[in-house]
């Protein structure tokens, strides 16, 4: 039907680009070049020919319509604003009126000139003078006619006989010139306006439809939960109404529907009055405290330093429509989308990066392995374990400010300490370095690129992760896989990991290939499945890895057999059960984690205030602290202030760099003269040669070097942080908060 021609649905082939071929007496084929092919069978050869003829005629008509639509120039100019278009047409009209006025003046003065020349011609002058005057008169007439033709105004009735023939000729063949251009611009302007209005109407209809779908989806989910969960809860807990408000594991709160009824999460334990306010009802008091953030920070340190905290203030149920913000950001990079803190979790990207160390004991065990292949199995399990915290974590971490740092000192408890620094803002990049007294070093520089595609959000971490074991000298490298957040528009948000990871031991040549299987509705495989093979430099498989990235990883030793080439490539499950070794299993989430952003035990401790940290540490970030304590309106205002401060600092650096480059004295002062320079440390005393780009920002604790193993440029820890912490000398740290 004609109603289906406006959109592409399953079972549609565009006739304008279709290929119609006859197969035999009753069969014929329609295809669109390979993606879709239909084999059709008629009852007889006559019936087949009728169909083929009708389709060929319809195809010819479709091709003709396509060409006409292309020639009409009725393209949609989605970026052109209606007001701007009208202003342009108004300016064009005024310019044509100006030209018309100029033409009237030219005609007036031209007529006067011709009269004067006619009077001269009437005088008794020598023959040669008369010829000259006639020639000048002719040229004056042609000039006036040309100007008339340009404006498309009828020639003046007082043309002399000399100019009449040219006038007739120019009137016949002259182009419509400026006025014609004006008409053309108006015609196309109306087409553009019409196309633009159609696009706007279509977008509004789409938004309304999506909003209705989202509401229907939420109502269905609530009805489903009411029919299945509520009876079980009431019968099992003595009818406590508060217990009904605590959703099951993995059940995210509905925040899309404005009509949803929200409840407080059950406060089984008393919450600390961290920011000088208490929760009231289902909302959070937004009143400011008389105590400054710094003083409040100091009050918290005394308690949290003694023992690691096991809870944070519950996430308030604020209703906010994600689609209302994301609909204008399709195709953009996530780091460039201005997002309120309502979609954040109270951790920065640096802290999320540090969460990779939650299962650090896997590297401790790997360091004790004598076999490099067994060691590689534990490194692979560690790689998979870093994704276990993401399964329910659909909130976005805070984008770190340039120069922001985060330290995690667990040297006494767990034998390692870690440091992260935001080394670049555009593109956003963070450098991470962790050392363990148990014999390993982990370092990485991760650049996050992301694209919002409407229905889902793709997050692609770029950069190489290095793990070096001190005693054996084994140096492993790998890269992260793509993370995808689904159901941005309708439904519950859920996260999937997909892609391959190749872990290489650069000393021995051993290799492990991990495959993260993307979720498929039609697949019978276990969700979030990960498979892997550990092989030696010759490609012979010694271990097979199997598990899921959110639960556990098992290892199976490949047994020698009588298969092809004397060995079996992959063992069967029942044959290899005896050789199964549990490499890693996810720690259970804390109680009521669903009310605390699904944080793990480690994540709950990361933003706890600590004494002696650098002034650039993420724990001291005020908008993140306000957001953690439920003061979201204040956090949004503080976030805008910090971002504006960062923009001003960047402009000052760029201006200072431009001046230094012009003067050729960028390094003579020994220190950056900008009082707000994020890195006021020593600069080279020798000015850069002419034409050399001057880098206005340098990280404080990391330096960019070429990696000898991967040959990539990466930021590597240069030392000095822990020494500065011991001395409590933070004089080089910038003022970013």
From TrEMBL:
Kindly indicate where the leader peptide sits in this chain: none
Which ranges are annotated Pro residues under compositional bias?
677-693
What parts of the sequence cross the membrane? none
Q: Where in the cell is it found?
A: Membrane
Please state every residue range assigned to the domain named PH. 1-60
For membrane topology, the record states: Peripheral membrane protein
Under SUPFAM superfamilies, the record lists: Oxysterol-binding protein-like (SSF144000), PH domain-like (SSF50729)
Q: What is its main location?
A: membrane
Give the region (Disordered) as residue ranges: 608-699
Q: Which InterPro entries match?
A: OSBP_sf, Oxysterol-bd, Oxysterol-bd_CS, PH-like_dom_sf, PH_domain
Q: Which domain of life is it from?
A: Eukaryota
The entry's keywords: Coiled coil, Lipid transport, Lipid-binding, Membrane, Phosphoprotein, Transport
For this record, an example GO cellular component is: perinuclear endoplasmic reticulum
- Entry's Pfam families? Oxysterol_BP (PF01237)
Q: Which family does it belong to?
A: Belongs to the OSBP family.
What is the name of this protein? Oxysterol-binding protein
């Amino acid at each position: 039907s004609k109603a289906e021609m406006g959109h592409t649905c399953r079972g549609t082939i565009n006739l304008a680009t279709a290929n119609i071929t006859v197969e035999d007496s009753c069969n014929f084929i329609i295809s669109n070049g390979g993606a879709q092919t239909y084999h059709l069978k008629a009852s007889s050869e006559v019936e087949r020919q009728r169909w083929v003829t009708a389709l060929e005629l319809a195809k010819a008509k479709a091709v003709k319509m396509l060409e006409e639509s292309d020639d009409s120039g009725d393209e949609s100019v989605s970026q052109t604003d209606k007001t701007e278009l009208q202003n342009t047409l108004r300016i064009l009209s005024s310019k044509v009126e100006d030209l018309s006025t100029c033409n009237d003046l030219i005609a007036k003065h031209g007529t006067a000139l011709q009269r004067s020349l006619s009077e001269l011609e009437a005088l008794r002058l020598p023959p040669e003078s008369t010829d000259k005057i006639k020639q000048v008169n002719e040229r004056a007439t042609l000039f006036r006619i040309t100007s008339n033709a340009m404006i498309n105004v009828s020639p003046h009735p007082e043309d002399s006989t000399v100019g009449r023939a040219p006038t007739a000729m120019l009137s016949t063949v002259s182009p419509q010139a400026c006025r014609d251009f004006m008409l053309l611009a108006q015609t196309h302007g109306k087409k553009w306006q019409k196309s633009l209005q159609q696009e706007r109407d279509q977008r509004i209809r789409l938004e309304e439809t999506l909003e209705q779908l989202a509401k229907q989806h939420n109502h269905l989910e609530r009805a489903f939960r009411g029919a299945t969960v509520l009876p079980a809860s009431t019968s099992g807990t003595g009818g406590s109404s508060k217990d009904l408000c605590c959703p099951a594991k993995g059940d995210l709160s509905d925040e899309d529907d404005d009509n949803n009824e929200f409840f407080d999460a059950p406060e089984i334990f008393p919450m600390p009055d961290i920011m000088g306010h208490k929760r009231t009802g289902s909302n959070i008091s937004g009143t400011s405290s008389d105590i400054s953030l710094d003083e409040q920070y100091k009050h918290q340190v005394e308690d949290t330093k003694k023992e690691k905290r096991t809870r944070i203030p519950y996430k308030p149920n604020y209703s906010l429509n994600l689609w209302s913000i994301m609909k204008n950001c399709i195709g953009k990079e996530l780091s460039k989308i201005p997002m309120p803190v309502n979609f954040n979790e109270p951790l920065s990207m640096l802290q999320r990066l540090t969460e990779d160390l939650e299962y650090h004991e896997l590297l401790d065990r790997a360091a004790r392995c004598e076999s490099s292949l067994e060691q590689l199995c534990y490194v692979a399990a560690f790689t998979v374990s870093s994704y276990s915290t993401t399964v329910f974590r659909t909130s976005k971490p805070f984008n770190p400010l340039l120069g922001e740092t985060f330290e995690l000192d667990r040297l006494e408890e767990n034998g390692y300490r870690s440091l992260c620094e935001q080394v670049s803002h555009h593109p956003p990049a963070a450098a991470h370095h962790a050392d363990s007294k148990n014999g390993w070093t982990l370092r990485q520089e991760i650049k996050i690129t992301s694209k919002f595609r409407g229905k889902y959000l793709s997050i692609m971490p770029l950069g190489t992760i290095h793990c070096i074991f001190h005693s054996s000298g084994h140096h492993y490298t790998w890269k992260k896989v793509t993370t995808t957040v689904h159901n941005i528009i309708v439904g519950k948000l859920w996260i999937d990991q997909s892609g391959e990871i190749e872990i290489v031991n650069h000393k021995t040549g051993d290799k492990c290939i991990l495959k993260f299987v993307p979720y498929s509705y039609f697949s019978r495989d276990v969700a979030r499945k990960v498979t892997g093979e550990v092989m030696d430099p010759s490609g012979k498989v010694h271990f097979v890895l199997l598990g899921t990235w959110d639960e556990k990883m098992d290892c199976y030793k490949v047994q020698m057999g009588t298969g092809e080439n004397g060995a079996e490539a992959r063992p069967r499950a029942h044959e290899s059960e005896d050789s199964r070794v549990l490499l890693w299993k996810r720690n259970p989430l804390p109680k009521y984690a669903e009310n605390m952003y699904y944080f793990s035990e480690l994540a709950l401790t990361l933003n706890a205030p600590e004494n002696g940290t650098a002034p650039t540490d993420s724990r001291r970030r005020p908008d993140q602290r306000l957001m953690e304590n439920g003061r979201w309106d204040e956090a949004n205002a503080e976030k805008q202030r910090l971002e504006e401060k960062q923009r001003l600092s960047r402009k000052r650096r760029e201006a200072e760099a431009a001046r230094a480059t012009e003067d050729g004295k960028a390094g003579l002062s020994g220190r950056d003269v900008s009082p707000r320079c994020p890195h006021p440390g020593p600069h080279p005393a020798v000015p850069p040669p002419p034409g050399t780009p001057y880098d206005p920002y340098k990280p404080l604790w990391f330096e960019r070097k070429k990696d000898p193993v991967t040959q990539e440029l990466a930021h590597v820890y240069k030392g000095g942080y822990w020494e500065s912490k011991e001395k409590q000398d933070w004089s080089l740290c910038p003022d970013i908060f």
